Structure prediction request, 68 residues.
Amino acid sequence: MPSMTTSKVSRWDQHGREHTVRVTKSGVQRALACETCDWRRSAQFLPWLKAEEHLAEAHQATVDPATP
Ligand SMILES: [Zn+2]
Prediction:
């Protein structure tokens, strides 16, 4: 069962590889952790936006698998 305090942002790159940033609630902060590289970041606001920015800039992963 998924935890209510953890979620993730997944994007695909142009080669069809999936890159995922996990978002973990830590007090008032959200801790972001990329599963592809060792990128770590904390964010108080809009953690999913920060995750998307990292995926786009570091991995050129901009394709949202949830978007038809
Ligand atoms: Zn990364």
